[in-house]
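Newbie here. three chains, one complex. Structure please?
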Amino acid sequence: MLPLRVTAVFRDAWLIAGKDLKIEMRARVGINQIVPFAVTVLVLFAFALDTDQEALRTYAPGLFWVTVLLASLLAIGRSFAVDLADGASDRLLLSGIDPIAVFGGKAAAIAIQLVVLEVLLAAGVVLLFDVTVHRYGLLVCAGLAAAAGVAAAGTLYGALVSGLGVRETLLPMLLLPVVAPVLVGATRAFQDAFGVAGAEGWAWLGLLAGFAAIYGVFGALSYGALLEEA
Amino acid sequence: MEPAVRLRAAVTLLGRFPALAGVDLDITPGEIVLLKGPNGAGKTTLLRLCAGLCSLASGKGWVLGHDLNDERRMVRRRVALLGHRTGLYDDLTVAENVAFWARAAGAGGTDVDEAIERLSLTGRLADTRAGRLSAGQRRRASIASLLVRRPELWLLDEPHAGLDQQSRDTVDALVRSAAAAGATVVLATHELERIQVLEPRVVSVVGGMVRQGSDSANAPNGEDASTESDRRVP
Amino acid sequence: MSTVVAATTSSKATRVLGWLTLAGFALLVALAFAWVPEDTRITEQGDVVGQFDAVRLMFVHVPSAILAYTGFGLTFLASLAYLRWRTDWWDMMAHASAEIGVVFGVLTLVTGSIWGRPTWQTWWEWGDVRQVTTLVMVLVFVGYLAMRRIPADTAVRARRSVVIALVGAVNIVIVNRSVDWWENRTLHQQSTLTARKIRDETLFTLSFSFAVGMVLFAWLLLHRFRLAYLESQIEQLEVDEAMEERRAEAGLSDDSKEQP
């Protein structure tokens, strides 16, 4: 009984993630709007820091993650807007898919988009801010763990504000304080990976993984209650 | 026999507005029921309540044997609700939309082909993105993605609105075949003449309440529920 | 049928609590300014160090912090209780205590900042775990209150609130740990109370300020909770009224009930 249900959850999560990713591939909102937005933010940081190459190199990890967090707000909002556009969110409720699968699928799709964004931004940071990568393993692991954490917390809060008229303004306000630890942890890990500060990179990776695990479990458990709209 | 829908003093609030102000309604399986009433009478909310999408503020209700107070998830997977919105993703093709909702309901590929066939969505139309369809085509695609779920209770909210002649005929055929297959159909529509041939039982909805009429030969065999004079929220 | 019992949030109990708070606060001011000496210590090198007059701010800062965390803690507990019993009572309790928590959280941050300027030579110290944790906590609950302000079905809003409150509680632990590792140092006094580095007068006044704070908290909570209750009563009246209109629309007279 239980294995059967678990299989169904994974199958449905895969279905939802595939649907979300296919829509994003087709609509190209990510490539046409979110990525250019993120790159623009990086360029603005360079302007703000007055073309000081040394400062840019030092602060590159922090600037990178602030940019990712800002862009993630757009990706999360977009993920829920697609379902709300013509009543698909009601149909998802009516389909009888386990809410855990909906949560897992949407979070996975957002996480994959964030990873793609991180790769592009990392290239941007290397090119624009003149940083060199010292530890590739740490860089990749921290990027993946942070994307998973932001996606899990973001999906939870995206569902929470979806259907509210003011969701575009409420989401940043609710989500950003919650993902603050990701910013701290991922920045420290990247400082280590870029070799700009002696931080315990792998210990920070532990924090990121823990964050992703906590919000993954919490989101999966509470998603059903959030979807049960009146 | 277990009623398809049974509501007792059902009250549903939209915010602070009592969209349903104490509804008593019995629908037996296999019935075709027409909800009639002015705009704002509560027809849409009544259909959404039966789909398990609204909650009861007070009163009791069962749909297909499941309690509307605590088994709404069981209700949802057994009904099909065709609302004003189509539930389609603009960036997916018609075939992809239908296939997605079929897989979400655990239905197979043959169901998808059959549904696309029945709603004349084959050929180029099947590979067109939903965002490029006309309103009528959209509605047909929406119905196709409901058909794959083989629902036991159809809830149709203004299914004819804004449709061309071909699509209207499709809707009528759908209602007929669903009823013939033993499913229950509840619909709200202004197209009374079209529906008359199906001999539905007419239920008038006024002010968030229901008066069960006997305009049809197909009278309810449940108890007489015309005594809704003094029910209210506790 | 619900009726509004009294259109006021005060009662004999709140009046007693209110006067107690006022009297206690007056006494606290007197103690803090007249009785407690300024905080100085002479180091082994013979330097005079300490918080000097700024120590008097502690009698506002420390109880504020305790009240803020009591408020947030109560929101967390009330949210858990709501999950268990699903009654509006617990939802209103969570709302009321969160609001008080935010007010005292802001007061904590402001007084802490003012105190930090002469003592630590900075308005804000990012390396301080408690300061940063409190700031993030206040931000989370400002979001909580903003969400609650949006009109929604009572049960839907309550469920959303529970999620934010529980996430907030989990979050405070994560933020606390991460900031701790972040700087791995803290400027905050490490358990000055237990280490007995504190003067008797200061200790007494500090304890007294806790007591005044708790009475104030109870007073505010009662008023705020009753306000929420009255609001819900008004909402219910509006629903009843709309229900009457709806029934009139349906052509049913309803003589057996009378509306105020």
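Moderator note: Chain A has one domain: 2-227. The mean pLDDT of chain A is 89. Thread marked as resolved.
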